[in-house]
Amino acid sequence: MSGTDDVTREQPRTPVWRRLLLQAAIGAAGAAGSAAVTWFVYWLQHR
User: Fold this and answer.
1) What pLDDT was estimated at residue 15?
2) Is 20 or 11 the better-scoring residue by pLDDT?
3) Is 43 helix (H, G, I), strand (E, B) or coil?
4) Averaged pLDDT, 24-39
5) Where are the domains of the chain?
6) Which parts pass through the membrane (predicted)?
7) For residue 41, which phi and psi values (nearest 5 degrees)?
8) Is 13 helix (H, G, I), strand (E, B) or coil?
9) CA 15 to centroid of chain Cα atoms
C-alpha cells in the first residue's frame, strides 16, 4: 500500500490558483459560446 502512496506523492500537485484559472477559463468560454449563439440567432432573425 505504501507503494501507491509514493507514486501519488511523486506527482506534482496542481496549485489551487491554476485550478481556479482553468475553471474561470471554462466558464468564460461557455459564456462566450452562448453569447455568440445568441447573437448569431439574433442576426439571422433580423437580416
Assistant:
1) 85
2) 20
3) helix
4) 97
5) 14-47
6) 20-44
7) -65, -40
8) coil
9) 15
Contacts of 37 (CB under 8 A, 6+ apart): none
Give the C-alpha separation, 27 to 34, whole Å.
11
Biggest CA-to-CA distance, the chain: 66
The C-alpha cell that represents 31 in the structure block:
459564456
Three cell numbers, residue 3: 507503494
Q: Average pLDDT, stretch 2-27? A: 78
- pLDDT surpasses 80 at 2: no
CA 40/CA 13 separation, integer angstroms: 41
Q: Find where cell 481556479 sits.
A: 20
